[in-house]
Amino acid sequence: MSSNNQSPKRVLISFLGNINYDTRAVNLCSSLRAEGLFVDTLSFDWVERKQGGEIPVIRLEKSKSSLFFYLKFLFTVCYRLIFNKYDLYIASDIYNLPILALFAEFRGKPLYYDSRELFRYLAGLKNKVNVQWLLAKIEELFIGKCDKIIVTGMMDAEVLMEDYGITLEKFILLRNLPKPVKTIEKIDLRKLYGFPENSLILLYQGVILKGRGLGKLISLLPILDNVCLVILGDGDLRTELENFVSELQMNDKVKFAGTISQSELLSYTASADIGCVLIENISRSYYYALPNKLFEYIAVGVPVLASNLPQMVQIIDEYGVGKYVDPEKQEEIVDTIELLRDPELRKTIKANAKIAHEKLNWDNEYALVKRHFI
Predict the structure, then answer these.
(1) How far apart are the first and last CA of the chain?
(2) What Cα–Cα distance (Å) separates residue 111 from each residue in 11, 88, 105, 289?
(3) Could you report the per-residue pLDDT of 32-46, keeping only the tens digit for each?
(4) pLDDT reported for residue 5
(5) What DSSP state is assigned to residue 197?
(6) What is the pLDDT of residues 252-283, one digit of tens each?
(7) Does 332 lie in the same domain as 222?
(8) Which pLDDT score, from 0 to 100, does residue 47 have?
(9) Which candidate, 7, 43, 288, 353, has a CA 20 to 30 Å from the CA of 125?
(10) Are 221 and 253 in contact (CB under 8 A)?
(11) Which DSSP letter does residue 105 get?
(12) Measured between alpha carbons, how far is residue 18 from residues 52, 97, 172 in Å?
């Protein structure tokens, strides 16, 4: 394992994704740069969309061959690492971990692993036993080479300690918190999408994947009076859900907004009445979920409707920022949405959320751990 007592001057953050659409990575880059560090990034995208921000993005083709996709990714990362030297290497996912571990060890520099997910337990790999096994082996081989492991919740750290025998001192808690929000200019979702003025607007923001509770929400709309749903984001399940909405003849009540840039996102969020985080317990990674959307809803005072999963329950109970339900119980979801119609309750939750956000923001979170980076 490498060690370095000097503050790193040049930092590499490598992420198999578009950093510009990732609040966590954008915030980390900006905070490190504010400390006077040189921050280099490797960011990739395979979806046809705007770049989304100032960070350069490398385009990859994924539709033709998964093997070619990963080979091109590996080649690009290796090429950058061969011709550039860094004082700190940050692997922002498991896919970057092996390459950055090898180069960090060769250069004698520290390696941080951002375990933003429990990668060996990803929900999308539930039926891909071989891929799941491979990711578990990669993590087992290389996680011990990390000087620090960054996690989004302490329950994630507990799982990794149990799986790999890692000590608590190795972990940095860096939750997916937004920057402090002072004022926000709302985008009027009712006017934008032609919803009735007195309608209740549910909002989901994030990747559209299996296990995010969207199918369950959509299926309830025919029995919910004057309730509309806005979905911000994109993903593999979008087309299927759009077809489902059409089958239910709910196109006037459900709108897919697509991917929204980080600079505009909270303006959409703030106009909703309820922010939904109905993650289903279909994998260990989802069971311990503590996603950024939860904290983004809190930041703009939107009441949260979440699953009764442990890390989200902790936040909601501590700060009184919403309600949680069993996502498998339709009647419970309906009753809770009806409960959250009450403007007085939403007013109370909004006040609680304002107090919560004064603590639950990126600046406070980063201040607690910045010594590990500089």
Answers:
(1) 19
(2) 10, 6, 8, 25
(3) 999 999 999 999 999
(4) 55
(5) T
(6) 999 999 999 888 999 999 999 999 999 999 99
(7) yes
(8) 87
(9) 43
(10) yes
(11) H
(12) 8, 17, 23
306/310 Cα distance (integer angstroms): 11
pLDDT at residue 210 tops 50: yes
- pLDDT tens-digit profile of 133-146? 999 999 999 999 99
Q: Which amino acid, 13?
A: I
Q: Do the Cβ atoms of 16 and 46 come closer than 8 Å?
A: no
Two tokens at 216? 């369950």
Q: Domain check: are 283 and 206 in the same one?
A: yes
- CA–chain centroid gap for 312, Å, is 13
362 within 8 A of 179, measured Cβ to Cβ:
yes
Residue 126 sits in the same domain as residue 235: no
Nearest Cα to 14, choosing from 71, 86, 62? 86
Residue 35: how many other CB atoms lie within 10 Å: 14
pLDDT at res. 363: 98
Q: State the residue range of the domain holding 336.
A: 189-359
Q: Which amino acid belongs to residue 253? A: K
> What pLDDT, on the 0 to 100 scale, is given for residue 261?
87
- Structural domain tally of the chain? 2
Q: What is the pLDDT of residue 127?
A: 81
Prediction pTM value: 0.93
One domain, residues 222 and 341: yes
Cβ atoms of 314 and 294 closer than 8 Å: no
